Amino acid sequence: MVEKSVLFISYDGMTDPLGQSQVLPYLAGLSKLGYRFTLLSCEKPERYAQHKAIIEEITREHNIHWQPISFTARPPVLAKYYDIYRLKQKAIALHRQKKFALIHARSYVSAAIGMELKQKFGIKFLFDMRGFWVDERVDGGAWNLQNPFYRYAYQQYKKKEANYIAQSDAIISLTEAGKREMQTWPSYGKAPIQVIPCSADFNLFGLVTPAQKALSRTSLGIKSDALVISYLGSVGAWYLLDEMLALFKEVKKVYPQAVFLFITPEPAEEILAPARKLGLNPADFIIRSATRKEVPVFTASSDINLFFIKQSYSKIASSPTKLGEILAMGLPVVCNSRVGDVAEIVANTNSGVAIDDFSPESYKKVVAKIPELLKKNGAAIRSRAIDYYTLDNAIQKYAQVYSYLLPEPGKKVDAFLKTVG
């Protein structure tokens, strides 16, 4: 049916891990509901050469018409504008051929194209926001507003952001906190905002059993009586390594047998160097890189998972994928508030502790709660996390937005509007 023909635009590549985990599963689920997708993405040449066949198989299986273009890396800045131009021209050509009823634009670069096609052809425009990208550039240190060039870029992109919000027919937010903030912006009109956090693969990240825990510890050389604190993922600008190490130092005072497991692609020395500065023993650290399938195997050795994220304005719209994966495994967590809906989710799932600051007093409170954390019921944590993080629920929420934007003749949308507020 022509009225269910959708163009999905992503500046991120499908051959990137993010495309395979946070785009294709949604489209595959929606295609089963009768939506016919054309997928326009920007692919990095090396990844494209390596993973092209895999993506072609997935898209062919789910009747998704994949239209990749190559990602341009050089020269910086100009390359992005060149890619946007090529994406726009390709999108226009595809629309003239297929007459799309909806443009689903993932993040800001794609939104520029989606908005222009709406204005040019009258197509419905869904802005899948994926967080406050413009403010993330500042909060993450990529754009220093003391520099006139970056200050100008920030001002221009905030104007574009306001236009995307004003022109969209519906908006996807990763968090309730982000939704509430957007609704205070002068640019926000009446477009419904659906909250869909980053999903977790509950099949891959299964509930940890005692046998799996013991086997994982044996494979990693961890003693059966050790207290294992784990961290999952890259260690970069957003993740507070020094603060996590400071907490671990407090843990060691009460639990001398504790070890800190890092499942990360980062070189070991990037973790061990600051650990030494705090007087921590490198022997108490286990640092492993892992394939996606190995991640839950290694994580199964954990007693508690820990992550601290930089608190900033932009992070209220952030949904850490790792939280859903950890809760799917039934593991208790220690994290921090003022990051998306993290504190609320941890409270509602009764899965751990979310501290408000990184003071010595807060660290001591966490250590005091460890006995309570170790008694948490893993199956109960996993069960309570399902409503937040399963792929099926995310697909259902997307389907509600699609039904609102592309209603069947005579179908009312009042119920959906009431659910999103």
Automatic annotation (TrEMBL):
The keyword Transcription regulation does not apply. GO terms for molecular function: glycosyltransferase activity. Signal peptide: none annotated. Residues 216-371 form the Glycosyl transferase family domain. Residues 28-201 form the Glycosyltransferase subfamily 4-like N-terminal domain. Keywords: Transferase. The keyword Transferase applies. InterPro entries: Glyco_trans_1, Glyco_trans_4-like_N. Pfam families: Glyco_transf_4, Glycos_transf_1. Coiled coil: none annotated. PANTHER family: GLYCOSYL TRANSFERASE GROUP 1, GLYCOSYLTRANSFERASE. This is Glycosyl transferase.
